[in-house]
Write a structure and sequence with these properties.
The chain is of the alpha/beta class and about 375 residues long. The chain contains eleven helices and twelve strands. It has one domain: Aldolase class I (TIM Barrel, Alpha-Beta Barrel). Helix 2 packs across helix 8, helix 7 packs parallel to helix 8 and helix 10 packs antiparallel against helix 11.
Amino acid sequence: MPLTFDAKLGEVRHDWTKQQVTELMALPFNDLLFKSQMVHRANFDPNEVQVSTLLSIKTGACPEDCKYCPQSGHYNTGLAKEKLMQVEAVLKKAAEAKAKGSSRFCMGAAWKHPSDKDLPYVLEMVKGVKELGLETCMTLGMLRDDQADALADAGLDYYNHNLDTSPDFYDKIITTRSYQDRLDTLQHVRDAGMKICSGGIIGMGEREKDRMGLLAQLANLPQQPESVPINMLVKVEGTPLANVEDIDPFDFVRCIAVARIMMPASHVRLSAGREEMSDEMQAMCFMAGANSIFYGECLLTTPNPEAHEDMQLFKRLGLRPEQRIEKSDEEQEAVLSKAIAQDQEAKNPLFYDATQADAIASVQH
């Protein structure tokens, strides 16, 4: 059955209706991927993937009660608490990430919101990473408007603040921060002139209508997020969602495809949960329109495919990292091959362990 709004496919819109999102989700799988790939090709190079590295700059003891997150102080997950990292240590990690091929360096802190005491150190991190020639992204919890302005003045490019799920399902997952709190922070970020990274988590026991509600909420923002991370729940012992039923892989791929169609100009990030995905599932997500990943074996403190595995998968699929400065295909291939060879020779993970702790926590804030 053709879509009732097929003529608008590929347009950036902010008026998505429940009926239209339902029509997309109900398409036969092959038809949905065909449409999402057409939209993807109209807006991006289909064989380029934006590569980011994520570092936890302050780990654990978060006062929020997000049921998926082992960094929450409400749950006993065995995660060691760590203070805010020193600026110099963060810049060293950023330099290592750049040397290994990342174009964006993301820094995350397990806070409800940044304190006035800690913010000056965070601003120095932003300035230092920018001086290295990397794009910068931070996720620090809720922001006041003056804090957003300060981050923008320091040169922060992106701020991550996920909506997590639909408004209807939200209070089943989080009670210490309202949905409106999240929307207000996104507005402060936008008003300050920064780009937005905002998405959600799939597989928390939500219904399909909640997935559709999340995507509609994101797409119908006054300006769509430039980056949309779609996380697959990483189940961690000690959290309330440790034993939730696994999501069907095809349902996850559908969410990627619908996100691509509804937010055609945004980077759709295949984010947390890739450690549990087969190469074939990841390839299907790229076909559906995902064009961004986190690189390295650790996301904040949860497992992620090791960097050399990502590069080998890129090579098998004919994908290449998106570059801030254009390079020829031959140059990018040479960089990719050299990094794989060096990593195998060293017999060590290509990327650092972001927290120097067991990989037991979650990126999914």
